[in-house]
Design brief:
By secondary structure, the protein is mainly beta. It has a domain of 89 residues. Helix content is 11%, strand content 39%. It is built from one helix and 14 strands; from the N terminus they run αββββββββββββββ. The strands form four sheets. Strands 3-2-1-13-14 form a five-stranded antiparallel β-sheet, with no helix packed on it. The longest helix is centred in the N-terminal third of the chain and has 22 residues.
Amino acid sequence: MRNRRHWTAAILFVIPLLFLVGCMEYGKVDQGRVIALDKEKKTVTLIQDVKSEPNNPDYSNLPPHTYTLPTDPHEMGPEPKVGMRMKLDTKNKQIVIFDQASQNFKTINYTLIDQKENVSRDDPLVYDVAAGKPKKFPAVDRDKKTISIYSGRQKILTTFSLPDEYFSLPESTWEAGDEVRIYYLEEGKAHRFMNISRTDIFKK
């Protein structure tokens, strides 16, 4: 009789828990590179990384994903940097950007001027020791018609030339936007926003 009462009490305890777990709504995660930030509307737009591999990202999913940012400051990470550069392909001498006008990707062939590999983040080539901070990249020289890009993830510093038409574009065209991770319960509404470019060692 006593054992029966124990079993009955256990069942009465477990059933509400099972009901609660069954009613819980699990969120989803999205991750990608930021291409737009609207501070007035408090929205962020990203190109999703379809691989989610730190050393081999693949920003190729369209259309872009837009989310409203969390209203709770505790759920909001550092404000992201915006950029249109999706890929720097040094093997094929190509750079892939997101073109705002067409809302599509654009692959641009470039002419290599100079390239240095195995360049760490603290290398004097990319780090200003006297100032104690990284040098500014991309570096666009409109007179010489060259662009210098440093990819910390690839450890490559490359300088290339492009046709005149591309130098009318803003410098953010050649910038790699911050990588962010979004946790959401509702489509298009970020519950938690994490700027992983500020916390992870692989970037851009």
